[in-house]
TrEMBL record:
Organism: Bordetella genomosp. 2
PANTHER family: BLR1237 PROTEIN, TRICARBOXYLATE-BINDING PROTEIN
CDD domains in UniProt: PBP2_Bug_TTT
Family: Belongs to the UPF0065 (bug) family.
Protein's name in the database: ABC transporter substrate-binding protein
Top-level division of the source organism's lineage: Bacteria
This protein's UniProt keywords: Signal
């Protein structure tokens, strides 16, 4: 009996390295916790194609929207920790525990694997707003309480949190108008029903056409692609406004370390290919790859930043 147990333990010890070395031996699933068509979905499909080519195995994207991204995240948290089910997540991964009344999974059951891209938030206003810089926008908001309204793609979304951060740091009152998705928010913003919006660089074509006005970007330094656009902090009127949407891979926390390293290596390798870099830029994003340790630290920093704002502004989602 002891000999049998010894042999079983020996076989188990060798099984994990062998599984990692042979990975993947069948199709891999990437879960997107949002509806098809958005930035997260586009990134997942971009990486699914690139990883599928690298591995010689199909990589399938499965959309599981709902619950502020918690439904899709929960599905991955409960999946086998064998590397065959991954999640592409964003800011909801660190804010949901402080916003949702009930979490359908334990946050610690998912582990950060690799960050792939950032989408800096740009402060846009409708041309009907008499402000051509951040200082003038703050003055307008103070002179007209209840007049400045911000669109967002949903409660707890990156645009929503950026607007709350801006309002808190500027000491102004704003009206939050959450929509069910970016498309609906942008439609009303362009129509003037809502007069401000923190959105990504994807909306810059509208600014170039004069349909909206770009005032500043919520980054520590100016962007290389938009050197003429100042940062919010440069205004001298509002400080410490840094906000970006971001996108990264997660997996079940119980996934063995060697397999986790193999997955991260593959994701970071395709991130450096010219094809993926070009498509990331085409989506209005900035390639910003990070491995497991750096991405975990980034998650901790984002969690601390947004927890403070969520609690101060009393933001909650059902």
């Amino acid at each position: 009996m002891r000999r049998f147990l010894f042999l079983l333990a020996s076989l188990t010890a060798f099984a994990a390295p062998a599984a990692a070395a042979d990975f993947p031996a069948r199709p891999v699933t990437i879960v997107v916790p949002y509806s098809p068509g958005g930035l997260t979905d586009n990134i997942a499909r971009l990486y699914a194609d690139a990883l599928g080519q690298r591995w010689g195995q199909p990589v399938v994207v499965e959309n599981k929207p709902g619950g502020g991204a918690s439904i899709g995240a929960a599905a991955v948290a409960r999946a086998p920790a064998d590397g065959y089910t991954l999640l592409v997540g964003s800011v909801g991964m660190v804010t949901n525990p402080y916003m949702l009344k009930q979490m359908p999974y334990e946050p610690a059951s998912l582990a950060p694997l690799a960050r792939v891209a950032l989408a800096p938030n740009v402060l846009y206003v409708h041309p009907s707003v008499p402000a051509r810089n951040v200082g003038e926008l703050v003055d307008f908001a103070r002179a007209h309480p209840g007049r400045l309204s911000f669109a967002s793609s949903g409660v707890g979304s990156s645009p929503h949190l950026a607007a709350e951060l801006f309002a808190a740091k500027a000491g102004i009152e704003v009206i939050q108008v959450p929509y069910k998705g970016t498309g609906a928010a942008m439609t009303d913003f362009l129509g003037g029903q809502v007069n401000a919006y923190f959105d990504t660089m994807q909306s810059m074509p509208y600014a170039r056409e004069g349909k909206i006005r770009a005032l500043a970007v919520a980054t520590p330094q100016r962007l290389d692609d938009l050197p003429g656009l100042p940062t919010v902090n440069e205004s001298g009127r509002v400080a410490d406004v840094v906000s970006s949407s971001w996108f990264g891979f997660y997996l079940p926390a119980a996934t063995p370390g060697d397999l986790r390293a193999r997955l991260a290596e593959a994701i970071l390798a395709v991130s450096e290919t010219a094809a993926v870099k070009d498509k990331i830029k085409g989506l209005g994003l900035i390639g910003a790859p990070q491995g497991p340790a750096a991405f975990a630290q980034f998650n901790r920093e984002e969690e601390a930043r947004w927890r403070e704002i969520i609690e101060r502004q009393r933001i909650g989602a059902d």
